[in-house]
From TrEMBL:
Pfam families: adh_short. This is Oxidoreductase. It comes from Streptomyces ambofaciens. The keyword S-adenosyl-L-methionine does not apply. Belongs to the short-chain dehydrogenases/reductases (SDR) family. Keywords: Oxidoreductase.
Length: 254
């Protein structure tokens, strides 16, 4: 049975854990061939095997997207293998929290490298293929979905540079949306509230004890599939409909 994304190819960054895993699963269920991009290759291969077993098509692509050459190579490998690229999900991300005063600037650089520069690298490499897909592809439309955050809409103390990166993603997304609107490449941003993933795990014990653990104890967080639902919704709209922004929150998160 033909599904909504039959004949398309999607590339998902950050497909080795959390939101990216379920995004890849759902896009594959809809019929897209999916390139799984991240650094932890074993995990990508396990997911690719699972998707293949379920009747889908997937390719594990090991890449550190902070390195422009590797990001470009990931896009190239995808197009070489599947012949095209219709959908880019810029999902890879890093969140390191804490005060600005006394911060280790290397943590800021790591966040900016993944959340901003990595997203730019994959977007730049993918655009020629997406423009071609919008002209010649089965759907006559192509998609970029950028995974931002509620932290791209609201700023909080101790979220400083994470806020900076996600506000930046929102601004870049809207600018690119306007640039590409007439060429039928849809560019949208999805802003999740709290989701139960590995995202917080890279923070130190103090941040866990003072910020993350108390928050998690008080709220029922979303599961990654909830955000994957949103991504799938955005990329399966009719050609005439572009979801420019989707803000998905846990019901009990103010
Ligand atoms: P996870 O930590 O579970 O996943 C992050 C993914 O990014 C991993 O697959 C990781 O793979 C990948 N990644 C990190 N650095 C790189 C890199 N240099 N090159 C390639 N891939 C990289 O977190 P989530 O699933 O929660 O995060 C996904 C997105 O959702 C992020 O952009 C995050 O900011 C956003 N988000 C998450 C929220 C949450 O509450 N969880 C809320 C709002 C937004 P690997 O380490 O194998 O490279």
């Amino acid at each position: 049975m033909a599904s909504k994304l039959t004949g398309t190819v999607a590339l998902v960054t950050g497909a080795s854990s959390g939101i990216g895993v379920d995004a890849a699963r759902q896009l594959a269920e809809q019929g897209a061939a999916v390139a799984l991009v991240a650094r932890r290759k074993e995990r990508l291969e396990t997911l690719a095997a699972e998707i293949t077993e379920a009747g889908g098509t997937a390719l594990a692509v090991e890449a550190d997207i902070t390195d422009r050459d590797q990001a470009e190579a990931a896009v190239r490998q995808t197009v070489e293998r599947f012949g095209r690229l219709d959908i880019l999900v810029n999902n890879a991300g890093l969140m390191l929290l804490g005060p600005v005063v006394g911060a280790d600037p290397r943590e800021w650089e790591r966040m900016i490298a993944v959340n901003v520069q990595g997203l730019l690298h994959t977007t730049h490499a993918a655009l020629p293929h997406l423009l071609k897909a919008a002209e010649e592809g089965p759907r006559q439309v192509a998609d970029i979905v950028n995974i931002s955050s509620i932290a791209g809409r609201q700023a909080w103390e101790n979220y400083g540079v994470y806020n900076l990166t996600k506000f930046g993603v929102n601004g870049f997304t809207e600018s690119l949306r306007q640039e590409l609107a007439g060429r039928h490449v849809r560019v949208g941003v999805l802003e999740p509230g709290a989701v139960d993933t590995e995202l917080g795990s890279h923070n130190n014990a103090t941040i866990h004890a003072e910020m993350l653990d108390p928050f998690n104890a008080q709220h029922e967080r979303l599961v990654p599939a909830d955000i994957a639902d949103g991504i799938t919704y955005m990329v399966t709209r009719p050609r005439r409909t572009a979801i420019a922004e989707l803000w998905v929150m846990p019901t009990d998160q103010a």
